[in-house]
Amino acid sequence: MNKKIKKNLSLITLSFLLLFTSCKTTQVPADKFYKTVLVEHYRNKDYEYVIKELDSHKIGESKEEAGLWYLYGLCKFYTNKTDDALESFGKVLTYFPENYEVLNNIGVCLFMKKDYLNAMEFFHMSFYYNTNYKIAIDNYNTAYYNYSAKNNKSMPLKGLNENPVEYNSMGWFYYYLGDMPNAIYYFKKSIKEDPDYQFSYISLGYLYDEQKNYKTALQYLEKAKKIDANNPDLLNNLGVLYYHLNKKSSAKQSFLEAIELNNYFPEPYNNLGFVYLDENKLDDAADFFTKSLELNVQNNHLRAESYAGLAFICSMKNDSAQAKRYKNFAIKSDYKINEISYLCDVLQWDKKFIDLWKSL
Questions:
Q1: What is the pLDDT of residue 300?
Q2: b (16+ CB within 10 A) / e for 180-200
Q3: Contact (Cβ atoms closer than 8 angstroms) between residue 241 and residue 217
Q4: Mean pLDDT by 10 residues, the chain (360 residues)
Q5: pTM for the complete prediction?
Q6: What whole-number distance in Å separates Cα of residue 190 and Cα of residue 268?
Q7: What's the CA gap between 118 and 8, in Å, rounded?
Q8: Do 272 and 266 form a contact (C-beta atoms < 8 A)?
Q9: d(Cα 172, Cα 164) in Å, to the nearest integer?
Q10: Would you state the pLDDT for residue 10?
Q11: Considering just the CA atoms, what is the radius of gyration of the chain in Å?
C-alpha cells in the first residue's frame, strides 16, 4: 500500500535559476539575452564568460536582480573564488532569508573555507525551512564528520528556536541521520510543547508505521485526526494502518474520506483497489486501480503498484497473458517492485499478494 554519509557536498545549481529567468535588466532584454545566452553558457560550464558579462552588466542591489547574484555566485564558486561566491549568495539571502537552497550553498562555501561549525548551522537552517530536503542532511553529516575529526570531539545539534515546529524539524533531522531514539525524543518534545501541533503526531505515526508497529502508529494518527480531520494525507495513512490491522471497514471509510476531501489524490484510489481485492470484488478493484493510474502524473512507485493490482485481477480471472503484461508495466515503472524486500518493507504487502506476484 502507498503512503505518502557522503564524502562530497552538494551545491544547488538550477532550481533557483527559475527566479533568475524572470529578472529584469536595464541594458538588454532578459528574455533575449540573460535568460538564454547566460544560462546556456553556464550550462556549458563557460563560467568566465558569464562572470565577464555580469561584471559588465553591473548587477543592481534589488530583489528583482537577486537571480543574477545567484548565477554570479555559482560561477564564482566553480572558478574557485569562494569568498566572492559567499558574498553573492549572501546578497540573495538578504531578499530570500528562508530559501533553503541559498542557505545550503552558503553552507557549502563555509565548508570549503573549513568553517565547519558555521557550515553546519546553515545546513541545519536549510533543512529547517524544508524538512524534505535531504541534501542538507547529507551536507550536515559531512561537515559534522570533518568538524569532529578536526577537533577530536562531537558537536550536539542545537535548536534554532524553542517551539514545536523546530522540535518536529529536529525529529526529522535525526530520523534522516538514522538516530531513531533522538527522532522520537524530539517528536514527543514537540507534542509536549504544543499538544495541538498535529504534524508531530503524524511524524510519530509515520515512524512507528515504518517499523511495522501499527498499533502505536494508529494511536498517534487517531490523535492527529482529532486535532484536524481535514487532511487527506492523514486519512489515507490512517486507512493503510486500519488495513494492516485487519480493520478493513475502517480502512475503506478512511480512504473514501480522503477522496472526498481531494478527489484528485491517487493514493487512496490505489489503496481502495487492494481493499476490494480482499473482498474479491474484482471489477470494483480494477476501477480504483485504473482511476489511480489516470490521476497519477509523476509517482512511478505508485504507478507500479497500481499496475501490480491490475495484474492480480487478471491472474484471478485466469488471464495469465494480460497479468504478465501488467506485471511488465509495473516493473518498467519501478524496478524495485520486483524485489521481495521492497514488497515487504516499503509496500508492506500481505504474504498472499507477494506469493501471487512471484507466481506471475
A1: 92
A2: eebbbebbbbbbebeeebbbb
A3: yes
A4: 52 44 34 60 85 87 84 89 93 89 90 87 84 77 76 55 76 80 90 91 93 95 95 94 95 96 94 96 97 91 96 96 96 94 90 94
A5: 0.62
A6: 29
A7: 17
A8: no
A9: 12
A10: 55
A11: 25
Straight-line distance from the first to the last Cα atom of the chain, in angstroms, rounded to the nearest whole number: 19
Give the whole-angstrom CA distance, residue 111 versus residue 139: 9
Q: Is the dihedral of CA 304, 204, 226, 228 positive or negative?
A: negative
* C-beta neighbour count of 219 within 10 angstroms: 16
- The grid cell for 187 is 517528536
Q: How many CA atoms lie within 13 A of 221 on its CB side?
A: 24
Quickly list H helices, 152-263.
164-176, 180-193, 198-210, 214-227, 232-244, 248-261
Which residues neighbour 289 within 8 Å (Cβ) at sequence distance 6 or greater? Answer: 269, 270, 273, 306, 307, 309, 310, 313
Query: How far is residue 99's CA from residue 29's CA, in Å, rounded to a whole number?
Result: 27
In the chain, helix, strand, coil percent, each to 5?
70, 0, 30
Residue 260 class from Cβ within 10 Å (0-12 exposed, 13-18 middle, 19+ buried)?
exposed
